[in-house]
Amino acid sequence: MNQSTSNVKSRYALACEQFAEWGVDVSAALKRLGSVPISLHCWQGDDVGGFENAGEEIGGGLAVTGNYPGKARTPDELRRDAEKALSLIPGRHRFNLHASYAETGGVKIDRDQIEPSHFQGWIDWAKANGLGLDFNPTYFAHPKAEDGFTLAHADEGVRGFWIEHGVRCRRIGAAMGKALGAPCVTNVWIPDGMKDTPADRKGPRERLSNSLDAIFAEPLDPAHNLDAVESKLFGIGSESYVVGSHEFYLGYAIKNKKVLTLDTGHFHPTETVSDKISAVMPWIGDLLLHVSRGIRWDSDHVVILGDELQALARELVRGEYLSRTHVGLDFFDASINRVAAWVIGTRAMIKALLTAMLEPAGDLRQSESQGDFTTRLALMEEAKSLPYGAVWDYYCETSGVPAGRAWLGEVKQYEKDVLSKR
Ligand code: RNT
Ligand code: ZN
User: Fold this and answer.
1) Strand partners for 97
2) I want to staple 178 with a disulfide (CB 3.0 to 4.6 A). Which of 224, 308, 395, 406 is the partner?
3) What does the DSSP 8-state code read for residue 419?
4) pTM
């Protein structure tokens, strides 16, 4: 045992004593933490580019800024990069793909033609790496999405094309889930909306509702595929109206027993997803989170261990919602090393869950139920300086990944050896 390992162990032992004084069982928390997979989004690795080579703009109101060198250009490069990131993240996780990451062997296969076979490379890779897979139809970066409408399009032909895409994506999701022995969450997000004040808000929503019904008509085994629907408040170019708003999808998900997706960047900046969780959970089955970090708008900055992330994790733990929650990430920053972005964001998410699991919940609830808000606030503030770092380092070491800042050296080396040569 080297010096630093024994330091990590002794700091952990001291931390356990300190948490015990607050009535918190650290080893029970670590056991729970290890059972929560995070779904890493593939699109941080290549700026939401995909591999169709259509030369299309990403569109859909999505924007990736930055031109840091080393972006993945092929599925193999993306997989190597993801493997590097995953080797620096404690726990067993999932990988979240978009339809635009199909592998078609150089043949042009349009979105209404894709099949599970085009994702066999991903399935084999996931199996070999002990990962689950999640999936998303891609309703952007395509000529038929250029005017900003897809499933709610007024033209029946365009709508039909995108419905067929959705139908095929569910089958692909089910093939992934079946092959990997855990359900794939297939998440529908569409960009449809209007830049300026619409004359008809109702029509597009009726069309979207009908399109979704058509997509979901085929029964699929929930052990293989779970359908999710993701709302948004506004996007670039859809400032005045988004067809798939929160109220729309909340209603749709409740009525049709679908997974509700809450993206932390998809609400007004004074609204928080942490507050919405206990409000929606009594009415829906499962929840999918797209954990992101909006700065002034839905900017998809890399997730960090800030107040809102911690509040989100606390709500999941306090409400015992984790068994019904699929935690996915959704950010894309091309201004920094992309592998580091994955590592930073995912480690932050796991740290937030750890902190939440180490919360002295009993004491806080007791003071609240006694109306002693002075004690509640005092304890919340004192609990902030408990030794979470010592527990985190121990968790990393016992999970076989670098503790503390040591992972950064590995990413820098990978940048030198691999990324800088692209
Ligand atoms: C867009 C949504 C959506 C996308 C990804 C690429 O605002 O958040 O989830 O970010 O599907
Ligand atoms: Zn999202």
Assistant:
1) 135
2) 224
3) G
4) 0.97
Residue of 229, 225, 308 lying closest to 261 (CA atoms): 229
What's the rounded Cα separation, in Å, for the pair 119 and 104? 9
Ligand 1 mutation pick, 150, 263, 299, max ligand atoms within 8 A of CB: 263
Q: Can 230 be counted among the known catalytic residues?
A: yes
Of 42, 44, 62, best ligand 1 pocket probe by most atoms within 8 Å of the beta carbon? 62
Position 266 scores a pLDDT of 98
Residue 282: is it exposed, middle or buried by C-beta count within 10 angstroms (0-12/13-18/19+)? exposed
Q: Which residues contact 162 (CB under 8 A, 6 or more apart)?
A: 111, 112, 139, 144, 145, 150, 151, 153, 190, 211
Is 147 catalytic? The answer is no
- Nearest residue to 225 via CA among 172, 261, 189, 262: 172
- Which DSSP state fits 288? E
Annotation says 232 is catalytic: yes
Residue ranges lining ligand 1, Cβ < 6 Å: 43, 48, 62, 136, 189, 230, 232, 263, 290, 298, 330
Q: What confidence tens digit (pLDDT) does each residue in 319-335 have?
A: 999 999 999 999 999 99
Whether 192 is catalytic: no
Percentage above 70 pLDDT, the chain: 99
Atom of ligand 1 nearest to the CA of 298: 7
Residue 327: which of 346, 344, 311 has the closest Cα?
346
